[in-house]
Design brief:
alpha/beta; Nucleotidyltransferase, domain 5; three-stranded mixed sheet; two-stranded parallel sheet; 5 helices
Length: about 150
């Protein structure tokens, strides 16, 4: 599971930390979910975010993959709710549209756009991390737009 913590800025967002919650494949499903929960609780405690932005579930042709993703996503939602975070959900198409301007963009197009939108020390090459950064950026852009609309009314 990828994660990203960033601070929105008018020009380019500042990436505080990103990475992968890595769980050993040799452990049981329950142990992997517990490890994800502990890692997310620690990240939330350390960074003290206000919002948890996650990818909204979409139908996946591979049912086993979809189940594992939905279980991990449920753990993330639980950790966010336990920390009283605002929860925001975005479809993959919304994220791609927000980051690339094309809701059908591929993962490589999203990865190519990230350095233009976020100050990065090194390129992001892991799909899960790039997805997490893109989801965080999508929320930052939507929140900035909502704030501008609220200020104008």
């Amino acid at each position: 599971m990828g994660y990203a913590f960033l601070v929105a800025a008018p020009e380019r967002a500042l990436l505080l930390e990103c990475g992968v919650v890595d769980v050993r494949a040799s452990t049981t499903a329950a142990e992997r979910l517990l490890a994800i929960s502990k890692a997310l609780d620690e990240l939330i405690r350390r960074h003290r975010p206000f919002v948890l932005a996650v990818e909204r579930l979409y139908f996946n042709k591979n049912v086993q993959t979809a189940m594992r993703v939905s279980e991990a996503r449920g753990i993330a939602l639980l950790c966010g709710a336990r920390a009283a975070l605002e929860i925001a959900e975005y479809t993959p198409q919304e994220v791609k549209m927000s980051v690339t301007g094309n809701g059908r963009a591929d993962k490589k197009a999203v990865q190519r756009m990230l350095p233009l939108l976020v100050a990065l020390d090194v390129p992001i090459t892991q799909d899960n991390v790039a997805d997490a950064v893109a989801i965080a950026l999508t929320h930052a852009q939507r929140a900035r737009f909502a704030d501008a609309v609220a200020a104008a009314t």
